[in-house]
Design a protein that fits this description.
214 residues; 15% strand; three-stranded parallel beta sheet; single chain; six-stranded parallel beta sheet; TIM Barrel; 10 helices; alpha/beta
Length: 214
């Protein structure tokens, strides 16, 4: 059964961090998902930056069913269809493509599209969306820009992603309009490739602790 947009938003908000995962090998998907769960993060965005994305999604959905599972970097209708078929429960895009947003909504898939300006926010509002990805967060002006951007749009929630880590996580989470922060420091590709899943769990636990104190 599909989750509603409100349900997805609520679960991301509860996590406060959205891990952005790049998997080169599908066999790493389940150990990584379990490491995130053990560290206290029951959510992941698996990006379509590699050929292993769809199979990784499928394996996580089958073997770690309690994880809220998103597909990221979805750029085409083909990727969107593949993400849904593979078990993704929500979609994340780096930019705002009206055709992809409309297609996701037609499939009943909640979508968090990327924006970094007022026009993007208003496009999202025109589609009835309640949350957007602020990307790339740091290069786009970081906390000061996002704080200014939230002023005219009091109902919109944001998931800033890009250049966020332990040093600035709390600054973003302190903004009332921030739903959660996207990040990859706890799921570093080198750690995944080396099979250091216990270290991923440790870093995830530290990130969760930082988020709770923010």
């Amino acid at each position: 059964m599909n989750l509603t947009g409100a349900e997805v938003v609520a679960r991301i908000a509860a996590a406060r961090i959205l891990p952005v995962v790049v998997l080169e090998r599908a066999e790493d998907a389940v150990p990584l998902a379990r490491a995130l769960m053990e560290g206290g993060l029951p959510v992941a965005e698996v990006t379509f930056r590699t050929a292993a994305a769809a199979e990784s999604l499928r394996r996580i959905r089958l073997e770690v069913p309690d994880m809220l599972l998103g597909a990221g970097t979805v750029l085409t209708g083909e990727q969107l269809d593949l993400a849904k078929a593979s078990g993704a429960q929500f979609i994340v895009t780096p930019g705002f493509n009206p055709a992809i947003v409309a297609a996701a909504q037609a499939l009943g898939l909640p979508i968090v599209p990327g924006i970094n300006n007022p026009t993007g926010v208003e496009q999202a509002m025109s589609f009835g969306l309640e949350a957007v990805k602020f990307f790339p967060a740091e290069p786009s002006g970081g906390v000061p820009f996002l704080k200014a951007l939230t002023g005219p749009y009091p109902t919109m929630r944001f998931v800033p992603t890009g250049g966020i880590g332990p040093a600035n996580l709390a600054n973003y989470l302190a903004l009332p309009a921030v739903l959660a922060c996207g990040g990859s420091w706890m799921v570093d590709a080198k750690l995944v490739q080396e099979g250091r899943f216990a270290e991923i769990s440790r870093l995830t636990g530290e990130a969760v602790g930082l988020a709770r104190r923010a």
